[in-house]
Amino acid sequence: MDLSGKRAVVTGGGSGIGLHLARQLANEGAEVTLTGRNEAKLTAAAKAHELFTPFVCDVTDDDRIQELVETLDDKGGCDLLINNAGVFQAFDMTKSFSLEQQLLEVDIDVNGPLRMVHYFLPGMLKRESAIVNVSSGLAFVPLSMSPVYSASKAFLHSWTQSLRAQLKGTSVRVIELMPPLVDTEMVAEMDPSLHRMPPETLADAFMKGLRGSEDEITPGQSGQLKLMRRLAPGFIFGQLNKQPRG
Description:
Blueprint: E1 7-11, H1 16-27, E2 31-36, H2 39-46, E3 52-56, H3 62-75, E4 80-83, H4 99-124, E5 129-134, H5 147-167, E6 172-177, H6 199-211, E7 216-217, H7 221-231, H8 233-240
Helix pairs in contact: 1-6, 3-4, 4-5, 7-8
């Protein structure tokens, strides 16, 4: 995909992985709309590139998503939708933990991408475009300390496979980016001894996959988890979940 002049939407684009992906896209000439819930964070992030536009949009808010679609349609439509917004929560289910927080995690991490695709897809089917769902290597092997997050990524992985199959033969390409542990604010409280991929490295891997024919991008440890899930599922689950948790 030649990105020059293309219009991209990146959910959760105010920081972390989303912002690094957005920078790469803008550097290739794409006009990028950064979305998120925090207006101040989006405004600050948008100053990083002249092709960035901030748009406050919560992926749990149907009305606001439809306003976003209308805004992009007024500019000619969306060519690249990156579903990146997500929350990560670690908790012990043997202790008190808010049901409301768990359901919110589902609403953002699972229902968010469903809503975005539901509202954006009709317009994207009219042009050469791409949907990118950012899941995780934990879709292959869950991290027991983050049960809802891990399950949401497994859902997203399965749903993306079905979405890709249904859209085969249309003008919409479906890509899944499956990051390993990435050095972002989201995982700042995890054990510092755990290896973290620099977000710039992840963004480079994404751009390589976007330019090529790779529709399931599994850089670093994510590729290892994918392989070991097939070869020795019990072993890799035990290895992943005996790591220090901080």
